[in-house]
Amino acid sequence: MRNSTDNPKPPKRSEIRPGDFVWIIEKEHYGTKNYTQGFVKEVLSPGENHPRGIKVRLRSGIVGRVQWKISD
């Protein structure tokens, strides 16, 4: 079940590019408000949409699902 603090309409894969500044949720933090911010290094999800958000790897090496895209 999704947490009510998760973005109900996370960005699509086509809206996320390396270098974008995003807020992600890591798998171990699902159901919490413990989001992480950073710059996208690579997009990992193959599909255009995912209910929890598109999976990415940040430049810091952290992997999570994009909840909000802040800038290009």
Describe what you observe in this structure.
By secondary structure, the chain is an all-beta fold. It has one domain (13-71): Roll (SH3 type barrels), CATH 2.30.30. It is built from no helices and four strands. The chain has strands at 21-25, 35-43, 55-58, 63-71. Strands 1-2-3-4 form a four-stranded antiparallel barrel. A hairpin with a 4-residue loop joins strand 3 and strand 4 (63-71). The chain starts with 20 loop residues before the first strand and ends with a strand. Pfam families: DUF2196. InterPro entries: DUF2196. This is YwbE family protein.
Quickly describe the structure.
With 72 residues, this protein is an all-beta fold. Helices cover 0% and strands 38% of the residues.
Considering the chains and any ligands shown, give keywords for the structure.
38% strand; 0% helix; SH3 type barrels; globular; mainly beta; 4-stranded antiparallel barrel
Secondary structure blueprint with pairings:
Layout (H helix, E strand, L loop, with lengths): L20 E5 L9 E9 L11 E4 L4 E9 L1
Antiparallel strand pairs: 1-2, 1-4, 2-3, 3-4
Overall pLDDT level = 92
End-to-end Cα distance: 30 Å
Helix content, binned percent: under 10%
Order of helices and strands: EEEE
Count the DSSP helices. 0
Q: In the residues, how many domains can be counted?
A: 1
Strand content: 35-45%
Q: How many DSSP-defined strands? A: 4
CATH architectural name: Roll
Question: Major sheet: order of its strands?
Answer: 1-2-3-4
